[in-house]
Amino acid sequence: MRITEIREKAVKLDVNIRNAVFSFDDMTTSIVAVITDVIRDGAPVVGFAFNSTGRYACGAQMRDRLIPRLLRQDPDSLIDPTWDNFDPDSVLKAMMFGEKPGGDMERSVGIGSIEIALWDAMAKIKEKPLHALIAERYGDGTTPEKMFCYVGGGWYSPDETEESLKDEMRAYLDSGYTQVKAKVGGLPIDEDVRRIETILSVLEGGHQLAVDANCGLSPELALQYAERMKQFGLRWFEEPVHPIDFDATAAFVEAYGHPVATGENLFTTEDLRNLLRHGGFRAGKDVLNIDVPQSYGIGTCARSIEMAKASGWDASDVIPHGGNQMSLACALGFGMGMCESYPNVFGVFSGYDDSATIEDGYLLAPQRPGVGFEGQNALYALFKELLA
Questions:
Q1: Catalytic-residue membership of 321
Q2: CB atoms within 10 A of CB 381
Q3: Which structural domain, as residue segments, surrounds residue 360?
Q4: Which pLDDT band holds residue 302 (cuts at 50, 70, 90)?
Q5: 1-52: per-residue pLDDT in tens?
Q6: What distance in Å separates the CA atoms of residue 336 and residue 322, rounded to the nearest whole number?
Q7: 158 and 238, same structural domain?
Q8: Rounded Cα gap, residues 78 and 324, in angstroms
Q9: Cβ neighbours for 173, distance < 8 A, ≥ 6 positions apart
């Protein structure tokens, strides 16, 4: 059993939206294929992944360092004989050879994308859904039959009107979702408050709505938002300030009082440990958002969850960033609290299996082997181009 080749390609996202910090007009992502010598149904098993959304394609790091390091390893050194499959810890160690501690984001996205593509292959080798394989390695082997999903919507767009914003939220509700999220921090605070009031006018209450500032507020402005937004009783307020300004995070948590979420821009277990030590976060109330492909992958996610548990947290306090099949597999496999969804937001990189439906906010666990990209026809067509 060995990896024979790894291919990658940068793909531009075809979207015209923005958050409080940047526009996605020029955003790209890397798609990855890990090709093995294991044969299933007469063809080599191939694992696929992409590096989520919100970080640019990382092909240079993969081509120049990560892929060559992995392919020159003794194939046997990458196998876990007790599991009869690839060993994700050995794969991570091989890609990290020669890397200096710190500066993690420069490599964590590339490593995580390759690692998840390998996990996709590993699950296909075992002919199991990825979430089942995660639960087998890191849990008790069981996964829930369904997962609660909320919509990461309410993006700023150039042609938005009050009615179009209401229509967007009504469409999510009509599709079966019961919780949504919207952006804040990209307009003057009075306009953002009116925007939230507009969204709440079509919801039953603040418990159905989370907001996300994408780390775009200064510490001083964040406290103003805390004061103005606390009246709504929102599901959570996400990423108010810079991700490693833990003093500002703690000040916001104290001033706001209601649930706060952060973590998608913390790329290591050590980063999350510092958040829990210094950021004022409260187990059972606040939310850890981990972007698994951008944070070294599934193995590191497992270590981060174990670290959080040792500090009194539960896996259900973790909600992965990114509305895609990879995040869904992790949410199911680790027993996370819920999963994000991006219906029709990021083109072919949005959402789940083409046949998936949401009922009362819940999505049935997919049963295809691997991540399940083969059930997303447009995205799978992109992946197949890597093999041409």
A1: yes
A2: 10
A3: 137-372
A4: very high
A5: 999 999 999 999 988 888 988 888 889 999 999 999 999 999 999 999 999 8
A6: 14
A7: yes
A8: 27
A9: 202, 203
Does 81 share its domain with 149? no
End-to-end Cα, the chain, rounded Å:
23
Q: Does the active-site annotation cover 278?
A: no
Number of domains in the chain: 2
Non-local CB neighbours of 114 within 8 Å, separated by 6+ positions: 6, 32, 34, 49, 62, 66, 67, 70, 91, 95, 297
Catalytic residue among 128, 131, 183, 258: 183
Q: Which two tokens stand for residue 382?
A: 């992109």
Residue 15 pLDDT = 86
Whether 178 shows a pLDDT value over 90: the answer reads: yes
Task: State the CATH number of the domain containing residue 163.
Answer: 3.20.20.120
Catalytic-labelled residue, pool 131, 181, 258, 321: 321
- Residue 380 belongs to some domain of the structure: no
For residue 44, the domain's CATH number is: 3.30.390.10
Report pLDDT digits (tens) over 261-297.
999 999 999 999 999 999 999 999 999 999 999 999 9
Prediction pTM value: 0.96
Of 220, 223, 227, 313, nearest in space to 263 by CA: 313
Average pLDDT for 87-113: 95
Residue 377 in domain: no
Residues 234 and 320 in one domain: yes
Contact predicate 185/216, CB 8 Å: yes
In whole angstroms, what separates CA 178 from the centre of its chain?
A: 20
Q: Is residue 264 part of a domain?
A: yes
| pLDDT at 138 (0 to 100) | 97
pLDDT attached to residue 122: 98
What is the mean pLDDT of the segment spanning 153-160?
Answer: 92
